[in-house]
């Protein structure tokens, strides 16, 4: 009963992030497959997944192919009613579905003027009137959901739901571009920045380098506004404290150091995602 999820580059693909969160946040079994969104291989990578032409794509355990994020969301909610993808309360569930649908079809200015960028923040970005209108609509929707149904936690409906999955990239855009929103909206943005899954997604994206970097802007860069990572670095030599990778259990082949200690991993990806943000990974931190 494992899903196959096909995603694009994590640093830039907001829809891929949504597809991954639908599975990872609700503990649904999945395998990730990378699609060459910027390497030019996307058509070939999706050739066996008709009618797919964009990411994300989800293949169900039964072999059914879903090529749109809202179709993925509704299918997963239907297949896993106990997972809590939508709120249990009928009124909350109706509002959550409405918010998901509006994000799926709207906010074109925010998307177009503020491309997804998780490598760093931008300093000095000036939003135009259409972006400001999108931000005002976000504030209205977020405040409504929080006022009616958000008493049980930091998320739009208290506990995490598909509404938070769909609005996570919007929250990250606000953080990346330092967009003007209220303190209440900033608190919701901070919940996403501190979410371990968002930190993991970003860390995995940082294992890939780009030259040139997509979506470059003529603006100064600023540090990523999320939690500052623990300092770590990859090394070629040393003796690891652990004999097996904390993620796979396979023998150690790649090394990193942190606080004068050396840890091992089964491949470069496992090591590099950990170097990018060690505290985002509970299985690694259990070693520490």
TrEMBL record:
Residue stretches spanning the membrane: none
Position of the signal peptide: none
Top-rank lineage group of the source organism: Bacteria
UniProt cross-references to InterPro entries, sorted A to Z: Glutathione-S-Trfase_C_sf (IPR036282), Glutathione_S-Trfase_N (IPR004045), Thioredoxin-like_sf (IPR036249)
Domain GST N-terminal: 3-84
Gene3D superfamilies from the UniProt entry: 1.20.1050.10, Glutaredoxin
Descriptive protein name: Glutathione S-transferase
PROSITE patterns per UniProt: GST_NTER
One Pfam family here: GST_N_2
């Amino acid at each position: 009963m494992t899903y196959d999820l096909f995603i694009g580059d994590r640093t830039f693909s907001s829809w891929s992030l949504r597809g991954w969160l639908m599975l990872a946040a609700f503990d649904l079994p999945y395998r990730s497959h990378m699609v060459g969104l910027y390497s030019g291989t996307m058509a070939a990578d999706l050739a066996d997944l008709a009618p797919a032409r964009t990411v994300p794509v989800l293949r169900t355990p039964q072999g059914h192919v879903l090529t749109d994020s809202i179709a993925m969301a509704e299918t997963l909610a239907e297949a896993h009613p106990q997972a809590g993808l939508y709120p249990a309360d009928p009124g909350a569930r109706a509002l959550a579905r409405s918010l998901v649908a509006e994000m799926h079809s709207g906010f074109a200015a925010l998307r177009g003027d503020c491309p997804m960028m998780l490598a760093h923040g931008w300093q000095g970005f000036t939003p135009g009137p259409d972006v400001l209108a999108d931000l005002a609509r976000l504030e209205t929707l977020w405040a409504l959901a929080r006022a009616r149904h958000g008493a049980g936690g930091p998320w739009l409906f208290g506990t995490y739901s598909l509404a938070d999955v769909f609005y996570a990239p919007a929250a990250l855009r606000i953080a990346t571009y330092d967009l003007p929103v209220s303190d209440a909206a900033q608190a919701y943005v901070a919940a996403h920045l501190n979410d371990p899954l968002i930190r993991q997604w970003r860390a995995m994206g940082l294992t890939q380098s780009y030259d040139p970097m997509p979506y470059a802007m003529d603006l100064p860069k600023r540090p990523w506004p999320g939690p500052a990572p623990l300092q770590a670095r990859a090394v070629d030599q040393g003796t690891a404290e652990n004999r097996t990778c904390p993620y796979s259990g396979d023998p150690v082949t790649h090394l990193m150091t942190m606080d004068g200690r050396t840890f091992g991993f089964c491949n470069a990806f496992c090591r590099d995602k950990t170097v990018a943000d060690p505290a985002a990974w509970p299985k690694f931190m259990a070693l520490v």
